[in-house]
Design a protein that fits this description.
Elements (H helix, E strand, L loop, with lengths): L17 H13 L16 H14 L2 H13 L1
Length: 76
């Protein structure tokens, strides 16, 4: 009896534009205190990576970080 593999439950990851990824990476460097867990060799390649940057800027940052997250959100 052949068992069928279940369909993928996760949607395909959407690549971020190079400009968006570069802006998010710059914010990771600028607000390093919000990204204590971030590996130095980690790359931002997908829109969900950008979402993570926005989330951590809002959660761990100050007003400047919150405003930067707001501007980055507009780019999505």
């Amino acid at each position: 009896m052949k068992v069928e593999e279940p369909a993928a439950v996760y949607p395909a990851r959407i690549p971020a534009s190079p400009e968006l990824a570069a802006r998010a990476a710059e914010l990771v460097r600028q607000f390093a205190e919000c990204f204590w867990f971030w590996r130095a060799d980690a790359k931002i390649r997908y829109t969900d990576d950008v979402e993570a940057v926005i989330e951590h800027l809002r959660e761990y940052g100050d007003k400047r970080a919150w405003n930067a997250a707001k501007e980055l959100r507009k780019c999505l």
